[in-house]
Structure formats: C-alpha cells, structure tokens
Design goal:
Order of helices and strands: EEHHHHH
Strand order of the largest sheet: 1-2
C-alpha cells in the first residue's frame, strides 16, 4: 500500500512458534522414529516371524495375525511422524508427545504384564526397558524444548 511517497508493507502473518531445533532434539526424533519404523514394519509385514522372534508361539489364527498387523501399523505411523519431524520442525512438539505416549504405553503395559502374568523372557524385558527409556527421552526432550520456548 502506498501513502504519499512512502510504501507501507503490512507485517507478515503470525506463525505458530517453531520449537527450538537442536542436535539433541533431532537425534531423539531420528532414533525414536527409526526404532518405531523398524518395529512397526516388522509387525505389519511379517507379524508371525516378529511374534515368534520375541518368544511367542507360532500363530496360525488370522484374527491374531490381524491384531499383530494393526499394532504394527500404528507403531509404524508414529515412527513416520517422528522421522517426518526431523525435516518439518513444526511437527516436533506433536511428534515428541505422540512418540513418548506410544513408548511409555508399550513399556508400561509390559510392566503391568510382568506383575500380572510373570516374566515374558529376556527379549521382551529388554524391549520394555528400551520403550520406557525412549518414551522418557521423547517426553523429556519435549519438556526441555517447551522450557526453551517459554524463556525466549
């Protein structure tokens, strides 16, 4: 818009604040995402092999295979969101919270299973520990980024 001899340029539209982009945040997204993509893909593409590799009995029931594939697809979708946030920083907060929720839910369910059903075997105990660690890492990274945003 022009007024006299001066040109007045309107301010750019307000954008949602992007979370701080740090190497640690990107590493968290990439590691948590890669693990979820790998696990989710295995559960979706080869549910019986994935199930038996973790000490489960062979599965011939298509209903059980369908449940395993569905869980794999959900984990794969969250992994894709985490990885996408590396390239799209605006997704970072959402990806960290969704990823943290997924990992903490899986790890927490394994703890409940350990208490209620007994030990599932070393592989799934390790998986539960990794899930709890990745969940805590995602939520902790989100929390730190939230604090840096508020301070700036």
């Amino acid at each position: 818009m022009t007024t006299g001899t001066r040109t007045v340029v309107p301010p750019p539209p307000a954008r949602e604040a992007e979370p701080p982009d740090t190497v640690a945040t990107r590493a968290t997204l990439l590691v948590a995402g890669a693990v979820a993509v790998a696990v989710g893909t295995a559960g979706l593409v080869a549910p019986e092999a994935f199930h038996t590799a973790n000490g489960g009995a062979p599965v011939a029931d298509v209903t059980v295979l369908s449940e395993l594939r569905a869980a794999g697809a959900g984990v794969l979708a969250v992994g894709a969101l985490l990885v996408a946030a590396v390239a799209r920083p605006r997704l970072t907060g959402t990806a960290l919270l969704v990823g943290g929720g997924l990992y903490l839910a899986y790890g927490g369910a394994r703890v409940v299973g350990l208490v209620v059903d007994g030990s599932p075997g070393t592989g799934l105990l390790v998986a539960g520990a990794v899930e709890l660690a990745l969940g805590a890492l995602c939520v902790g990274t989100w929390w730190r980024a939230r604090g840096r945003r508020a301070a700036s």
